[in-house]
Amino acid sequence: MQVRNIALLGHKDHGKSTLIGRLLMQTGAATRVRIREAQEYSKRLGRGFEPAFILDSFTEERLNEMTYDTTRAEIKHRGMALAFIDVPGHEELIKNMISGASYGEVAVLLVSAKPDEGIRGQTKRHLFVARMLGIDRLIVAVNKMDTVNYDEERFRAIERGLRRFISAIGFDKRNVAFVPISAYDGENTVKRSARMRWYGGKPLVEMIYESAKKATPKATGMLRIAVQGTLPGGLVAGKIVSGSVRAGEMVAILPKGAAVKVRSITVNGAVVKVGNAGNNVALALAGTLPKEMRGTIISGISSRPIVTDRIRLRVFVTGAFGRAMSVKFNGIDIPCRKVRVLRVIDTTTGALRPGPPRLLDAVEADITLSRKVPVEGYAITPELGRFVLYNKGMFAGIGIIEPG
Amino acid sequence: MIEQDLKPLEEKSIYVIREAKLKFKNVAALWSMGKDSTTMLALTRKAFLGKIPFPVIHIDNGIDFPETYAFREWLSKKWNFKVIVGRSEIKPDPMGSACCGRNKPETLKKLLEEYGFDALIVSIRRDEHGIRAKERYMSPRDRDFRWDYKNQPAELWDDYASKLDAKEHMRVHPLLDWNEIDVWRYIKREHIPVNPLYFSRNGFRYRSLGCTHCTVALKSNAKNVDDIIRELRTTRQEERSGRSMDKEHEAAMERLRALGYM
Ligand SMILES: Nc1nc2c(ncn2[C@@H]2O[C@H](COP(=O)(O)OP(=O)(O)O)[C@@H](O)[C@H]2O)c(=O)[nH]1
Hints:
heterodimer; A: alpha+beta; Rossmann fold; Elongation Factor Tu (Ef-tu), domain 3; 7 helices; B: 6-stranded mixed β-sheet
């Protein structure tokens, strides 16, 4: 069964864990033992039943009612496995949120309709990060509709409040949907809700399923192998991130560009004629190889990525954005020689702001690296257009190369 | 139980195992002679063209099943890899069982220091136990094996944590995404040898293997891999229900986990 990763986003307390718990129950994925444990635990804490307690989490997380690190839970729907990644909604834990969301193919954003909750800064920030990570399908679940008597006007107000921002950060309108739900009561989650007849669309799980079905990985077809290194015995190990490689063909090893011949290809222990995207290959190469293979890219002779030491990145800042920075690219660390900030964006509003970049801002920057690397737009070949930034060894941000 | 596509699981595991070997200086793997860590060894052979290029550690409290010891001797010869046996004591443990509780990690700690391993491949799966849902493919542990789950390094795309402070080591989890049934389907597809204790004798079999003190057999007529897969398709029981250690307080489990119990 195909597994699709669904990143659950949203401000703390807007109902992410409750939604997963409810879905696990409604689709029969939660064992009776689990449900009973959750009931007992809720009672022990002196509260009504909390579906969120069905999720795998630490006692500590339950007691403090917050997710510290990502949790994964799978449900089955119409022959597809949907793996929900519950990410922390707390600002201080954005690093963990990014780790979880980076595996997402579809994003589900929860916004609470409860009168004192609604759209929050974190709501928009999560959307911003999801878009940056390349997620292009989004479902906004307007949750806690029970607290506003399933009122259509409240739902529409939240929709209006987010539509513009969502388009501004680059989501295609056709790939975005809004669904009103109550995670707590299980309304409109798996079955259509009788309490919201004014909503003409499908229930949440169905919307997610359809989105996931359409989310197919884009592939350019050009050969790109991200090289991991040299195996004991001398074969070159790497992952084909796009295209395919044939035994006997000439390929280029970048950044230097040495042309070598592929003598043989091994995939999962068997010698094959062709290696395809997704395969982890071991290659026997004939020719003069660079001393250090780790971090190189193998491409076709004629369709090579650009090799440069100057990159323009869009960065989401997760730490101190400073001068002593380095990037992690394709498994290797590369110090930056120069970092020039062009623009700073407040990710809670999408507006430009003056001054030096702060934590959780987005930044557009020109960076000069201390060596040349083969790169491509993130949208073309993600593996060649994404960087993890470090400042004195500390995680400082993620950056992507935008086309153009 | 969800049956996932085996192809992407296999590719990811091979990637992670190679990454461990290429990134760290001194790698070892834990092997309990159970189905998961044996599958990990089979994947390792695929990653390194038939070889297992690092030593394999068995933490032995001396009271494993005879079948388990026999399997250890047989497979290590057949696949030609080096086994390091670390002998653990059986002594009272206030937080868990005397046999497989805290005493095993103590032995492992000593081994890591003695050999200077900086990365340890451990075949845990996310679906095995609640607490494991938060594990990463690569996750650092300090000298006392503590796991700071709230403050793990970011892990995004294929970039895994690699920086280690002195006295830390990396736990590497190549099987993290696999479900129990996927492991069995893969064992079938690849004809991976398994410990005979998994198969039914006199109406009972073991589903999860610990030592002779803490493993409880469950009622089952599954006599071969196909039977087991069929059984898993319909069971509503949790995998580790046959391990007495888990029946104890949940908080104790968490503490064990934080201590690095494997
Ligand atoms: N009334 C109501 N409360 C909800 C709903 N969904 C979640 N909650 C409550 O909101 C609180 C926070 O939910 P939780 O799932 O922990 O939020 P998370 O931080 O986003 O994971 C809990 O007390 C839930 O019971 C809902 O649909 N209706």
